[in-house]
Amino acid sequence: MKRQLAVEKAKELLEKMTTEEKVAQMIQVTYTDGGREEALKWAKMGAGSFLHVLGDDARELQREAMKTRLGIPVIFGIDCIHGHGLNTSATIFPSQLTCACSWNPEVARVMGEVSAREVATDGLHWTFSPVLCLARDTRWGRVNETFGEDPYLAGELGAAIIKGYQGDDLSDDEHILACAKHYLAYGEATGGRDAYDTEVTERKVREVFLPPFQKAVEAGCATIMTAYGFTDGTPLTADRHIMHDILRDELNFDGFVITDWDNTQSLVWLQHIAADISEASVMAASAGNDMIMTTKGFYEGMLNALKEGKVDISVVDEAVLHILTIKYEMELFDKPEKKGEPGCFGKEEHLDAARDAARKSVTLLRNNGMLPLGNGIKKIAVIGENADNVRAQYGDWTYFTHPVPDPTNSRPAHRPYVTLWEGVKEICDQEGIEASYAKGCAVIPKGEDDLEEAVRIAKDADAIIYAVGDVIPQFGEFSDRADLNLSGKQYELFELLKATGKPICTVLISSKPLCMGITAEQADAVVCGFNGGMFAGQALAEAIFGKINPSGRLPISFPHHSGQIPVYYNQMPGWHGGKYNDMPKTPLFAFGEGMGYSAFEYENLTCGSDLQVSVTVKNVGKVEGTETVQIYQNDCVSSVLTPVRRLIAFTQVTLGAGESKEVQIQLKKDDFALINKKCEKVVEPGEFILYAGHSSKEEDLISITIKM
Ligand code: BGC
Question: Which of 51, 54, 124, 261 gets mutated to test ligand 1 (max ligand atoms within 8 A of its CB)?
């Protein structure tokens, strides 16, 4: 349904609603709190939405909702973060961070589209994705949920996945609503402590953290979730300036805003800025939250506040209007249930999409010639817990971390995933190579380590593939870490493996950059896999054996040491001593870094007055490969400090061995803007350095000076 008609219909319906019905419409109830009976009670009361309910349970609630006086359908939300992963049958994609290694918006779009189809098939309407927070302090537990550290890359991938989820028409049966979260600057919480104080100014917010959300709004994102944290003493949930003045008035957001989990009640018991639930309800709604996640007390709280004249009904009307407009736009009143495509879980095309995403995300970070493995290799030793740990490979937000009851028992509980060990074994079997596996040591020590067994198979092999990383209790919400060193005996085992004199390829299967230390510095090859989903193991093995030419690039920098954090590339100039305290100022691996079995050279960088950039890229390697051409700028003299380098564009080009191509990229004037002291976005005339190249590292870039 067209937006204008949806607004008119919503207004008509609003006129007919009682105050109780309006307030109930603002509430989202979780099925996991109270179960079926409690949920049915709320459906009868006219709750606007439910979360974390699947399949037949959801259908039953919808039938109840449709029987209410005005027959207003509910909308079901779920955390489909990298696939509809809370359902045991879903296709599991790489995590957002892993997907970002592809630097490929089409990979993100397809991931959204396939996931939407599986969510819709469950009768659900809405995912709380994508996360558009930036991961700059990697001690934070939720780094895996982000598209990395850079506002431009996060915005491009965010807009793409939103288009994948939502399609062109909110009413069609195979697409769902997206929810850009957590608005705003949530990932920047001081010290990497989740949901904590964010020490940022409005100028910095506009420069760094707002742009991905702006792109989400421009992409038509239907909903936005506010963040748990607080900035300058005001919880984001209670911040009218960021929700009304910035989100609605400046960015022209016209969907609806939802709080995060119980983040109305927590204004009382946790953040202590409201004396009781009534005051908190008024705060959250007046600030611009249209839907209240899981705080059922909002119902009484808001009704009491209205009775006592503490808030005007227009606040509630505005919120309900936003919600109903989206419901009409989705044509939910005519077809309350999304149909999706029956039986589409894990269908071949979906699995292929997850496999393709995994392949395009594999990031080779170091190679002294050991890879691709091939000639002369007769025996391989695969070592490490994460080489054969599907939970670690999947990462957060699947049924392993957030089990939700699945009422449709007929579905298979296990999908055809492939671990690294399985992927390597399969190739070895095909090629007549002997392969053996030993866990060696647990990532979190449990007292069952057998380092000797690992060394024994390593000694007997021609090459070692050693998986290091983290495991589920070490990441996710409530799991920030002060120390990003590899846990357990992972370094010690590396030393023992190294002492065998056999070539070692270290594979990182983790939620985020860890301090890899010797396991990277002394390895013959390093491959980053993060949480690659179902087919991570297959994709990593294919890259290691050269069946695919890895093309991933890092969306995030790797620290040498936890004390070196934050180590993101777009830092400000002007610190003392050219070091990070007593650590190097450069990271272990930089933003944009990644290699393959080809190599690329850049020349002839030009930029016309129409801001059309042209650069010649040549594949000087021996095999076809895909290069991500990265464009950065630096403002030479500006009224406020600007970062040493800022990504403003990228594109990919596939070139045969020896082939070269003139790559064209169209820039916009806005790409050279800064946020001045008055918080205005302006392009200050003067000189800019324009860089093009292979990564954010100085030595990987060529540059010219241009005038604006
Ligand atoms: C998280 C959100 C999530 C919500 C619902 C919260 O704790 O911060 O990202 O969407 O729970 O599960």
Answer: 261
575 vs 510, higher pLDDT: 510
**Rounded to the nearest whole angstrom, what is the distance from the C-alpha of residue 261 to the centroid of ligand 1?**
6
Express each pLDDT in 453-464 by its tens digit.
999 999 999 999
CA-CA distance, 487 to 490, in Å (whole number)? 6
**Tokens coding 352:** 């292929």
CA nearest ligand 1 atom 5, residue: 261
Establish whether residue 437 lines the binding site of ligand 1, counting it when its CB lies within 6 angstroms of any ligand atom: no
Nearby residues of 428 by Cβ (< 8 Å), 6 or more positions away: 380, 434, 435
Ligand 1 center from residue 606 Cα (angstroms): 46
Question: Is 262 close to ligand 1, i.e. is its CB under 6 Å away?
Answer: no
Task: Please determine, for residue 697, whether its predicted confidence score (pLDDT) is greater than 50.
Answer: yes
For residues 494 and 163, the answer to whether their CB atoms sit within 8 Å is no
In tens, the pLDDT along 246-263 reads 999 999 999 999 999 999
Burial of 232 (C-beta count, 10 Å sphere; 0-12/13-18/19+): exposed
Q: Please tell me the distance from the alpha carbon of residue 186 to that of residue 134, in angstroms, as a whole number.
A: 8
Residue 145 in contact with ligand 1 by CB distance below 6 A: no
CA dist., res. 2 & res. 458, Å (int) = 64
The alpha carbon of residue 113 and the mean position of all alpha carbons in its chain are separated, in whole angstroms, by 15
602 Cβ below 6 A of ligand 1: no
pLDDT in tens, 438-452: 999 999 998 989 999
Please, what is the Cα angle at 697 between 696 and 702, to 5 degrees?
Answer: 85
257: enclosing H helix or E strand: strand 256-258
Tell me which DSSP letter residue 163 carries. H
With a 6 Å cutoff on the Cβ, whether 186 touches ligand 1 is: no
Atom in ligand 1 nearest the alpha carbon of residue 195: 8
Residue 572 is classified by DSSP as P
* Alpha-carbon span 130 to 165, nearest angstrom: 10
- % residues pLDDT > 70 (the chain): 98
Alpha-carbon gap, residue 302 to 17, rounded angstroms:
16
Amino acid making up residue 283: M
| Chain segment 485-513, per-residue pLDDT in tens | 999 999 999 999 999 999 999 999 999 99
Which atom of ligand 1 lies closest to the CA of 182?
9
Q: CB of 477 closer than 6 A to ligand 1?
A: yes
Q: Which of 62, 81, 156, 119 is nearest to 555 (CA)?
A: 156
Atom of ligand 1 nearest to the CA of 128: 10
Nearest CA, atom 11, ligand 1: 261
Contact 136 CB / ligand 1 (< 6 Å):
no
Report all structural domains of the chain as residue ranges with CATH numbers, in order of start.
Answer: 2-15+24-329 (3.20.20.300), 362-564 (3.40.50.1700), 600-707 (2.60.40.10)
In whole angstroms, what is the distance from residue 617 CA to residue 547 CA? 24
Residues 6+ apart with CB under 8 A from 551: 102, 360, 362, 594, 596, 625, 626, 627, 628, 652
Q: State both tokens at 161.
A: 């996945």
Cβ-in-10-Å burial (0-12, 13-18, 19+) of 69 comes to exposed
Residue 559 DSSP symbol: P
- State how beta strands 612-619 and 660-666 pair: antiparallel
